[in-house]
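This section describes the prediction task in plain terms. A model, or a person checking by hand, is given the sequence of a single protein chain and must write out its three-dimensional structure as a string of tokens. No templates, partner chains or ligands are provided. The sample shown here is typical of the held-out split.
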Amino acid sequence: MSSRASNLLRLLFAAGLTAYLLFKSHPQEVGAALAGVSWTWIGVAILLVLVDRALMAVRWIWLLNPVEDRHLPSTAALMRIFFVSTFVGTFLPASVGSDAVRTWQVTQRGVPGPQALASVLMDRVLGIASILIAALGGFAAYPELLRRPEVLPAFLAAVCGCAIALLFVFSPRWDAFVRRWLLPRLPARLRSVADRVLVALQAYQAHHGTVLVVLAASVGVQALRIVQAWCLGMSLGLSTPLVAYFAYIPIVLLIMLLPITINGLGTSQWAFDWLFARAGTAGAPVFALSVLFVALGIVGNLPGALLFLTGERQLKSGINSTN
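The expected answer:
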């Protein structure tokens, strides 16, 4: 299946799922909920999303610090690359496209390919790990949620994936085992790709402190996102307690990462509807909350849009090459 056909199917699925949930929530009631929002709370959420985007950019730059100084672009150039890639990711499934653009752009600025890949890959792994850590607090408050068949398999799969990736950073023996026993059994084409990924992960074996600091910053990003969702809920007059947001929003974020729609459209609305019904809140206000949450993420990407529009022709050609 071509990339265009795949993206079209994702878009159609997102539109269909969103339309169904909108109809289920009664469009007129959703519109009334959105019309009555408190703009004070919306403004607070916007400020917080700008803070979390800045922190996300800084943590990625920290992951590039192990690269020799002569290869690193300026901090301003790296910030530009990060914000533009997040804007591009708004229109692509999950964040795979934005990661590809970021990797390509930073290599064009002189950073060696393995280090560029390592920084983006570790940024992604630590971001997912921080979502899982944030979810633990919610599970402590709502332990029955972890026993749900819809939640437990996805949670365990994400934990295993992050653990395996981090083992390459913290366990040279694990890396040696994979190279000795697994790589030779892969097809030649996959073996080459896997070897490059291993090289990328090995870049941080001498920088455990950096990895831990970035993980702590990533947990801070997730806390900001949870508080943003709570602010949006407050703008709609929802009485759902903050602890419920700490339980539910990490799961929403994990579902939004699934590369089955564009920017989490549809899947995020379903996740909000399913999870917040457990707290006694459902229908139009929750659908409105899900729309505001996705819209807030787009607002956080707008600085990248301005940089993209005033950016280089080289960036635009690079984006086309990743599609």
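For orientation: The chain has one domain: 3-322.
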